[in-house]
Amino acid sequence: MFKDELKIWVKAGDGGNGCLSFRREKFIPKGGPDGGDGGDGGDVILEGDASLNTFNKLRYRQHYKAERGEHGKGKNMHGKNGEPCIIKVPLGTIVKLFDTGEIIGEILEDGQRLVVQKGGKGGRGNARFATSTNRAPRHFEEGEKVEPIRLKLELKLIADVSIVGYPNAGKSTLISKISNAKPKIADYKFTTLHPNLGIVEYGSFKSFVIADVPGLIDGASEGRGLGTRFLKHIERTRVLLHLIDGASPENDYLSDFLAIRKEIEKFNPEILKKHFVIAVNKADSLCCKDDLEKIKAFAKENNIPIFIISAVTGEGLNELVNELGSIVESVKGREIKEEVVKEKNEKLDFLDEV
């Protein structure tokens, strides 16, 4: 089962209580206050883990609790801070407050940490309250208490390339041929019920991540065929590879492409700004030569790369992979430049404020 949504309860650690204590030693009959502070409670932290692709490992546990801070002790001994609770999540995780839907943050990089709830502050011991007029305070603070909160975790896969198209177009076969993914493959519709991720290697030690998104159908943007569950996984992708079944006599290649594009537009128009590549699959058994010429003309007119391939025989796959890799490299390079410019502008804005 592919788990891409999860509800969990988390509770950071309570702060330890401050201590009420007075120094008691031989020959010192009236020692001053020496109560130590309580330790801080542990935080609840989400940490990105690139080895995870789903929430499957988290589905059987819904409650997470960090360690509370130790209470302060006499002789000015402060309590130990509580250990944090670290929850490993896949990259692409969006963290929301369950009750309000407010987004707390996103986990996008391996090792990235997000504190979703801070631990309670430890209370002060009575030694902290000593003054020139009150040398024996009997006042101390209790540690800060923390109430549990409910979180909703949503996963949007991070992939360089996503394969989209109608069911049975050969997406699973293609990703199994060009990457290390091993999806279920069968000759019937909706074989793929969840996205599959794979690493595609090309050129000299180059690679990109590819996702096989389950087949979309008309009305997917309204949720038909679990369309919205799957469409969200292409929002972070850099390139969309539209795979068309070239062997279906009922298929109009151009209508196929435009229909899926329309569903994507209804779901999120911003996705259409991404790079598109068209691949007509099953070149070994093409049945509609006129349709092929139509979609070739459309692709040329709209500057969309198009390839005629066969995922089974391997025809055209090298050319397709190299083109996808080239586009991914170009997009990543542009993103890096934009990030550098953004950081530069932020520094200039900061200097202007100073």
UniProtKB/TrEMBL annotation:
It comes from Thermotomaculum hydrothermale. GO terms for molecular function: GTP binding; GTPase activity; magnesium ion binding; ribosome binding. This is GTPase Obg. The gene is obg. Its cofactor is Mg(2+). GTP binds at residues 165-172, 190-194, 212-215, 281-284, 310-312. Its EC number is 3.6.5.-. The keyword Isomerase does not apply. InterPro entries: G_OBG, GTP-bd, GTP-bd_Obg/CgtA, GTP1-OBG_CS, GTP1_OBG_dom, GTP1_OBG_dom_sf, OBG_GTPase, P-loop_NTPase. Monomer. GO terms for cellular component: cytoplasm. It is found in: Cytoplasm. Residues 159-329 form the OBG-type G domain. Keywords: Cytoplasm, GTP-binding, Hydrolase, Magnesium, Metal-binding, Nucleotide-binding. One of its GO terms (biological process) is ribosome biogenesis. An essential GTPase which binds GTP, GDP and possibly (p)ppGpp with moderate affinity, with high nucleotide exchange rates and a fairly low GTP hydrolysis rate. Plays a role in control of the cell cycle, stress response, ribosome biogenesis and in those bacteria that undergo differentiation, in morphogenesis control. It holds the Pfam family GTP1_OBG. Mg(2+) binds at S172, T192. Residues 1-158 form the Obg domain. SUPFAM superfamilies: Obg GTP-binding protein N-terminal domain, P-loop containing nucleoside triphosphate hydrolases. The keyword Hydrolase applies. CDD domains: Obg. Belongs to the TRAFAC class OBG-HflX-like GTPase superfamily. OBG GTPase family.
